[in-house]
Specification:
Elements: E1 14-16, E2 19-21, E3 27-29, E4 36-37, H1 53-64, H2 69-81, E5 87-91, H3 97-108, E6 114-119, H4 122-131, E7 136-139, E8 152-158, H5 164-170, E9 171-182, H6 188-194, E10 211-225, H7 228-236, H8 246-253, E11 258-271
Length: about 270
């Protein structure tokens, strides 16, 4: 039996061979790499959704070099500290860097968990499934999560869109949500180098309907990026990538190397 439910009728999906099938005979093929596409066309609209293969590859290469390892370590420790059950959902799993690390840390602590991840980017989910064989992955939107009501003990969301209604729906009562966000000075020196008038990130109020804030952690350190390829990869991971003109792109491509601040917050919530 899969953790996922049918996106058409909401019934549980069973894995038979290379197919996910529900009792009403809606069927979804499992890709060769192991993931299933549960994203319905009515949930996508007319625009391209999620990161494309170029952006996913850039992020994977950047993360695999360890630039965000302090955040990853803090996240994994937080997951283990607040472990409260067997089902963990990574909502917006990307290429699986953090999902894989979470599974590894849970295993080291002998904490049994069924881990699953979703992302709207097919390219990202494909990388996740190839990287991590002991989790279940699906192409899906965080605004239409294909898991049953109150089926998750923990939800992790890292730099992904926030959908409070869905997150509350899938979490059990007392379930834990761990959210990672960029804090005020994240990549400040990089923004100074690229933009004439840079702005620090706005951190929104921490209060969220339906959730109690248990704890917040700030992870801040300097990143030394010593080649242009990694500078470009970092920039392509950010929202600024879509809003940068030719002049700013030229400044970026001339940097060669940079030391810039990594500034994150981990927010830990419990569902009422």
């Amino acid at each position: 039996m899969s953790i996922f439910i049918c996106p058409v009728c909401g019934e549980k999906l069973e894995i038979t061979g290379n197919s996910y099938t529900c009792p009403k005979r809606h069927s979804f093929d499992r890709a060769r790499s192991g993931y299933v596409n549960l994203l319905l066309s009515k949930h996508t609209g007319k625009t391209v959704h999620g990161d494309n293969r170029f952006m996913v590859q850039a992020r994977r290469n950047f993360l695999d070099k360890g630039y965000y390892e302090p955040l990853c370590t803090a996240l994994c420790d937080t997951v283990c500290d607040h472990y409260n059950g067997a089902v963990v959902l990574d909502a917006g799993c990307g290429e699986g860097y953090y999902t894989t690390a979470i599974i590894g840390q849970l295993s080291k602590k002998n904490l049994a968990a069924e881990v699953c991840g979703i992302d709207i980017s097919k390219a990202a989910v494909e990388y996740s499934a190839k990287r991590c064989k002991n989790a279940e992955f699906a192409v899906a939107s965080v605004f239409h999560i294909p898991v049953a009501d109150k089926s998750c003990d923990m939800l992790v969301t890292l730099f992904a869109p926030y959908c409070g209604e869905e997150f509350q729906r899938v979490l059990k009562s007392g379930g834990v949500m761990i959210m990672a966000i960029p804090s005020g000075e994240h990549l400040w020196e990089l923004k100074q180098a690229v933009y004439e008038t840079p702005y620090k990130n706005e951190v929104k109020p921490y209060s969220l309907d339906g959730f109690e804030l248990l704890e917040k952690k700030r992870i801040t350190y300097d990143m030394h990026i010593n080649n242009q390829e990694d500078v470009d990869a970092l920039f392509s991971m950010t929202p600024y990538y879509y809003r940068t003109g030719r002049e700013q792109q030229e400044r970026l491509s001339a940097l060669g190397c940079i030391t810039t601040k990594a500034d994150f917050e981990l927010l830990i919530y419990r569902k009422f």
